[in-house]
Every structure is written in C-alpha cells, then in structure tokens.
C-alpha cells in the first residue's frame, strides 16, 4: 500500500481509514476507538513500520526492544501439533437434558429436564497433519467437552463405533503405520500405502474397523451429517451405587450423508477447508447443527450373555439388540473467537469424568487415560494447561496444586497442604466427591489377550451384510483403490486373505479389482466367522436417509438473462426446505436476470465447482449456455454433478451445455427440466433423496 503522497495525510483505501507514515507507507490511524499499539509490557509503540537503524541506510540496532520482542514472539508462535487428530475444527454450544436419568446415574447434568450444560466440540481427521485437506478418507474425531456443574466431562469419540486395536500398547504402531512413511515423509493424510495395509493385514483384530473405514463413513459430506460414538463401554452409577453399562452415541438431527470418492478427491482441490467452512457457515447463518445423545444401557447379565466382550473396543452392540435411548441434545451455536486459543489449545482427556460416570476395564480405554493427560503436557508445555479458559471448568474448583510454568490461577493464603490447622484451604468430600465404582477385580498379572476378544471377523461380516448393494460396491471400490496404491503384492493378497473370512463375494470382487491371478488361502482365524449374525439396518447410511434436504446446498449456475421467476421460486422453495441456494456466475459479482434486475453471485464459476454442492440447477440464458458450453469449467460443473449422482435441474436453454458435458443422451429421473417456476417444488422434493443412486452403475463401470 505504498503511495507517493505527502506525509501524514489522511486518505481512504476502500472502506478502511489509513494514514501515511513517515516513510510514505500507510498504517491504521491510532485515533478514536482504535487502541494504541503497545509492546507486551504495555509500552506504546510509535512506529511499527521501521526497525531502529543507525541512519536511514545503516544497520539495525539491538536496542530496538519492540522489534526484538515482536520477532521473538513470532518465532515461538507454533506449538507441537497433536500427534494424531492434528487437523480439527471446534465450536461452542450446549447439551440439553431431556429427562431425569437419576435411575441410572447421579451425574448432575442428567438430573433435571431442560438443564443446559455448556459444551465445546472439536471434530478432526486422524492421520493428516494440521494443514492437510478435510476430505481425506479417514476416521473423524468427535470430541465433546461438557462443562458440568461437577467438573469437566470429556467424551472423546470418533464417527465410527469400533476401533482398530484392542490394547492400547499397539496404538503407537497403528499410528506409525497409518501416518506418512518415515523414510519419505508421504503420503499425507492417506491410508492408501504399504505400511498401513501391512500393519492391518498382520493385525486381524483391525479387520472389522477396516470394513468401516472403507465404507462411506470416512468421507462424510459434513461434520453436521455424521454420527459420533464414545466407542468403549462405560458405566453409569446412580446415587445408590448401582452400576449400569453404557455405550454413548451422537445422532445427527440432519441425518447422515457422505460424498462419493471421486467427489472427495475433487473437493480436496476445490476447497481443502470444506468441512470446517461448512460448520463455520452453518453456525454463522444461525443454522445450528444438533445431535441427540443416545444411550445403550445394559447390565452385567446382558454383558455376560452377549456374543462378544463388551470390553473389546473392536465390537459394537447392534442397536437392534440394545435399543438407543435418546436422552438429550447437543447444539453447536457459537463459532470460536480465536482458533488457536480455543480449537488448538483445547485439551481433551478421557480421564475427565464426573461423579455418576465411570470407566470399565477396556484395555484401550485404560491406556487412553494415561495418554491424553501425558500428551497435553508435551503439546501445551505446562501442567497448567487446565488454567487456559477453554480447558478450565466453569464450576468453582479448588486444588492444592501450585506453581509450574504459566501458573495464573493461584491459591491465596498460607495453607497449601491438607490436613492443616489454619482452617484454610479445600478439603475432600466423601459425599460429593468422585468415588470409583467398586468392581470386583482379581487374577494374576499377565501379558495376555482375553479369549473373549478372539473373534475378529463375525462383526465385520455383519457390518458388510448390513449395507445396501450401493454401499457394498463402495466398500469394494475403496479396498481396491487403497490396495492398488500398495506396492507389495503380498500385502494386497494378505488383506484379501482376511476378506475371505468376512465375505467370499467381497474378497473375490476386491481380488478381481486388483487383478490377482489367484485367490490366497483364507487367513488363519482363531475363531471361525459366525454366519448367523442378523443384519443391522442401523449400520447403513443409505437405509437411514433423513428424507429431507435441510441443511444442504444447491449450486445454481446462472448467466445474464437467467430466468428471474425460476430463480425467485428456487430461493423460496429452498428456504422453506431449510436449504441454501448458492449462485454461481461466470464472473465474480453477479448477473442481470431476465427481468433486468441485477442479482449478486456467491461464487465465480471456477471457485464454485459442483462438487461443493448437494444438487445443481443450470439456469443460463440461450446465449449464456452457448458461452458456457465452450468453457471447460462449466462442462466439468455439469459432468461432475452427473457423475456424482446429484439431482440436476435445468432450463431448456441449457441444452448446448448438456450436449458438451456429454450427458444429453443419458439424462435420467435424477435430471429434471424447469420449464416454469411450478417445477421447482418437484425438484426440491426429489433432492430429499440426496442422490440419484440408480445412476451409479451407468457412470461407474470399472
Ligand atoms: Fe485418541 N488420542 N487415542 N482415540 N483421540 C488423541 O490426544 C490415544 C482413540 C480421539 O480434538 C491424543 O490430545 C490412544 C479412540 C480424538 O483434541 C492422544 C489410543 C478414540 C482425539 C491419543 C487412542 C480416540 C484423540 C493426541 C488407544 C475414539 C482428538 C492429541 C488406546 C473413541 C481430540 C490429544 C481433540 C487424540 C491417544 C484411541 C479419539 C495421543 C493411546 C478409540 C477424537 O492422547
């Protein structure tokens, strides 16, 4: 922003008031409401444009404390990223309890209907670094911090209800294998590489999770459209000391939805921040995402009769067997003020539980209880990370812990120990305090895996069999894609040898996709696969469609002369549906519609490809359509929407564009003409199916 104007003169640059500095450069005026820039010590700064020098062209002097402090602080801005779940996005909200759960738990937040507990949620991918793309095929973290009146409760979950491993001692191996290979530092945020599949194929316990991660669950359309699970079995304990086992679920009010793989690849290029932007935009627009908290409650007797060990985190309890009781809702209604202070510094610890909730002996959970506290010290640099506003409880708290780096919540008074005779300081409370559930434990100290953890394939089969044909095809395609990136054929074959224990057709289809010349023998199994587990429809995304287009986006491709009546009808119908209309124009700014009125566009065509929308409308004028037909990005807009099975509505004027996009002869029931504004309602109604899956076999032949 250099100018040649005279010094000190006030000028206007766009809508920002600036004032010229001594060197002709400009800076914001420190006048009126603008605070004066200071150093960290509060000393007002007179010049933030030039370092202190000897003469105009001489060396910089060490004495320049403002310059040195500024660079020193900048040099130390980065903290270690999370060793897993490095890329995340958080938001504030609240949990609202529906009814008293006193029968099961004395946890304060569940006692009173309508009670609201402040919450912070951080969603994340697992394997990628902080700067990786949002649409990686990966598990999503779903970590919830509930600031209850009895302290913080962290439910640090994922969007998949099972995990890869049964014992925490294998976690470093799993993560080493999943992240970039150590010699080359790539691939980034991808499991499609030798090390990952080598590990998986040598750890049969991970096969159930492998099925889940190859399903569409790992390419969610949005954080708003995915489920969450705390995975482990926990306990609820009531005031009488009675314990009930519990599995925690988060059910999205908007229903589940995923993208298709080719779309995911393209979204990563078009908008690597797709998921975080989606959440940010929804909250900013007042369209607050919600999940219901679901509990699967069961007792010791059920646990003893269940086919699998409830302490084994590689297993689920099907909803059909133990129904989910919805007990409250989580609403995210506030974006963060500062990404670093909140999303980056938030420290979840599975050990943070409240009276009325307790752990079980799940060996994965037990290991996590060590790891999370430990990692926060490394990441946040001090045991006082709990003093940070995002981590501090919102209820009164009194500890006798003291000092350490960055201690800024400090006790007053003389007594920093207890018992003491000064009559000062906090004391323990046997009534109110957290008391561990006195479960019976006995046995020898052994490094063993329980026999009850030995069945690795039955639930993998159940998951696969519970999917629709479409979803099964996606699982086959995902395995084939990932394994095609694996260089060693022996590893590919080893994965197929496990799939043979899951489902013959699945294994054969993947082997065919990989062009394996012969099928490997099935992997040795400690326990034979149970073929009789009933299907669980709850495990399928498609079987549980929301039947609504709420919260989704339609990209409307317009040019000058776009039909104003149809535009108005679209705007009205989508608003009624709770969906959004995004106008995409050839140029930034907007277009003049058929009624001569200027309409603002939201996106320029090459910044708003169809992959970032749930459905599209092609609304060019005849001249506009001819122009777009000769534009590669416009042809991609249409061809991709078709290939990604989206609903497409088009004005007949768009015909040249359909021709050039190569879909004119393939139009199907997912494509509708908008002859008049009245056709709009029919289109929006169709969109409630989210995708026109019938098209898939025609556009995906291999
Ligand atoms: Fe984590 N995990 N994890 N994990 N995890 C971390 O803690 C760990 C596991 C999950 O948004 C780390 O603060 C071990 C299961 C989420 O800040 C670390 C084991 C589930 C997040 C850690 C597991 C999760 C983490 C890294 C095997 C689903 C992100 C940074 C025993 C139920 C939280 C951090 C956020 C983060 C350890 C397995 C979910 C190293 C040892 C199972 C959502 O402590």
UniProtKB/TrEMBL annotation:
Names of required cofactors: heme
InterPro entries from the xrefs? Catalase, Catalase_AS, Catalase_clade2, Catalase_clade2_helical, Catalase_core, Catalase_haem_BS, Catalase_immune_responsive, Catalase_large_C
Quote the biased-composition stretches of kind Basic and acidic residues, using this chain's numbering: 1-19
Catalyzed reactions per annotation: 2 H2O2 = O2 + 2 H2O
By its UniProt entry, which Pfam families does this protein fall under? Answer: Catalase, Catalase-rel, Catalase_C
Question: Which residues does the entry assign to the active site, renumbered to this chain?
Answer: 85, 158
Q: What Gene Ontology terms for biological process does this UniProt record contain?
A: hydrogen peroxide catabolic process; response to oxidative stress
Show the segment(s) annotated as Disordered: 1-50, 417-438
- GO-annotated molecular function: catalase activity; heme binding; metal ion binding
Keyword terms: Heme, Hydrogen peroxide, Iron, Metal-binding, Oxidoreductase, Peroxidase
Q: Which SMART domains match?
A: Catalase (SM01060)
Q: Which residues fall in a compositionally biased region of kind Polar residues? A: 28-50
Q: Which residues form a coiled coil?
A: none
List the GO terms this entry assigns under cellular component, sorted alphabetically. Answer: cytosol
Family classification: Belongs to the catalase family. HPII subfamily.
Per its UniProt record, what PANTHER family does this chain match? Answer: CATALASE, CATALASE-B
Known function: Decomposes hydrogen peroxide into water and oxygen; serves to protect cells from the toxic effects of hydrogen peroxide.
Q: What is this protein called?
A: Catalase
Q: Which organism is it from?
A: Alkalilimnicola ehrlichii
């Amino acid at each position: 922003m250099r100018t040649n104007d005279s010094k000190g003169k006030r000028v206007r640059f766009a809508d920002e008031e600036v004032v010229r500095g001594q060197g002709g450069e400009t800076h914001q005026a420190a006048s009126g409401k603008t605070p004066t820039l200071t150093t960290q010590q509060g000393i007002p700064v007179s010049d933030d444009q030039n370092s202190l020098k000897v003469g105009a062209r001489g060396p910089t002097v060490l004495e320049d404390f403002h310059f040195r402090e500024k660079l020193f602080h900048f040099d130390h801005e980065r903290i270690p990223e999370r060793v897993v779940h490095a890329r995340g996005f958080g938001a504030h909200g609240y949990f609202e309890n529906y009814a008293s759960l006193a029968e099961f738990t004395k946890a304060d937040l569940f006692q009173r209907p309508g009670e609201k507990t402040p919450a912070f949620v951080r969603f994340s991918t697992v394997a990628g670094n902080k700067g990786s793309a949002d649409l990686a095929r990966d598990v999503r973290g779903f970590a919830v911090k509930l600031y209850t009146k009895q302290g913080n409760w962290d439910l640090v979950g994922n969007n998949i209800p099972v995990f890869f491993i049964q014992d925490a001692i294998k976690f470093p191996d799993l993560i080493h294998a999943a992240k970039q290979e150590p010699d080359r530092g790539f691939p980034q945020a991808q499991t499609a590489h030798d090390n990952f599949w080598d590990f998986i194929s040598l750890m049969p316990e991970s096969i159930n999770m492998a099925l889940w991660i190859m399903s569409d669950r790992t390419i969610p359309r949005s954080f708003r459209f995915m489920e969450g699970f705390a995975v482990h079995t926990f306990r609820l304990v009531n005031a009488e000391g009675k314990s009930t086992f519990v599995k925690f679920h988060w059910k999205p009010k908007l229903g589940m939805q995923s993208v298709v793989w080719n779309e995911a690849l393209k979204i990563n290029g078009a908008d690597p921040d797709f998921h975080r932007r989606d959440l940010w935009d929804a909250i900013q627009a007042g369209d607050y995402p919600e999940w219901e908290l679901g509990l699967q409650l069961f007792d010791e007797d059920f646990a003893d009769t269940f086919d699998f060990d409830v302490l084994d985190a590689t297993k689920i309890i099907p909803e059909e067997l133990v129904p989910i009781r919805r007990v409250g809702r989580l609403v995210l209604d506030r974006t963060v003020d500062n990404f670093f202070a909140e999303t980056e510094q938030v420290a979840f610890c599975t050990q943070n539980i409240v009276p009325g909730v307790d752990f079980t002996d799940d060996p994965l959970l037990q290991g996590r209880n060590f790891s999370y506290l430990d990692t926060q010290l490394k990441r946040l640099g001090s045991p006082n990370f709990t003093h940070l506003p995002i981590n501090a409880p919102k209820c009164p708290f009194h500890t006798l812990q003291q000092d350490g780096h960055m201690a800024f919540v400090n006790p007053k008074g003389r007594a920093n120990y207890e018992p003491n005779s000064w009559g000062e300081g906090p004391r323990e409370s046997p009534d109110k305090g957290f008391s561990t559930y006195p479960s019976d434990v006995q046995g020898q100290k052994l490094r063993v895996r329980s026999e009850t953890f030995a069945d690795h394939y039955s639930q993998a089969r159940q998951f696969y069999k519970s999917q629709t044909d479409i979803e099964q095809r996606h699982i086959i395609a995902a395995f084939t894609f990932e394994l095609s990136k694996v260089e060693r054929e022996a590893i590919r074959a080893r994965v197929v040898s496990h799939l043979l224990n899951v489902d013959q057709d699945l294994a054969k289809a993947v082997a065919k996709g990989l062009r394996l010349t012969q099928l490997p023998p099935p992997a040795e199994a400690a326990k034979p696969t149970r073929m009789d587990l009933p299907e669980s429809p709850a495990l399928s995304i498609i079987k549980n469609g929301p039947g609504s287009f709420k919260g989704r986006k339609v990209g409307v491709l317009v040019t000058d002369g776009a039909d104003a009546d149809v535009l108005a009808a679209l705007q009205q119908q989508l608003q009624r549906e709770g969906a959004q209309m995004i106008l995409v124009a050839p140029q930034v700014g907007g277009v003049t519609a058929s009624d001569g009125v200027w309409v603002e566009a939201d996106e320029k065509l090459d910044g708003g490809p169809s992959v970032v929308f749930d459905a599209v409308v092609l609304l060019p004028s005849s001249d506009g359509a001819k122009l777009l037909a000769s534009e590669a990005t416009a042809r991609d807009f249409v061809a991709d929407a078709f290939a990604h099975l989206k609903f497409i509505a088009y004005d007949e004027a768009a015909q040249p564009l359909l021709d050039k996009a190569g879909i004119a002869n393939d139009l199907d029931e997912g494509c509708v003409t908008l002859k008049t504004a009245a056709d709009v309602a029919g289109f929006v109604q169709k969109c409630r199916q989210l995708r026109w899956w019938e098209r898939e076999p025609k556009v995906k032949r291999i």
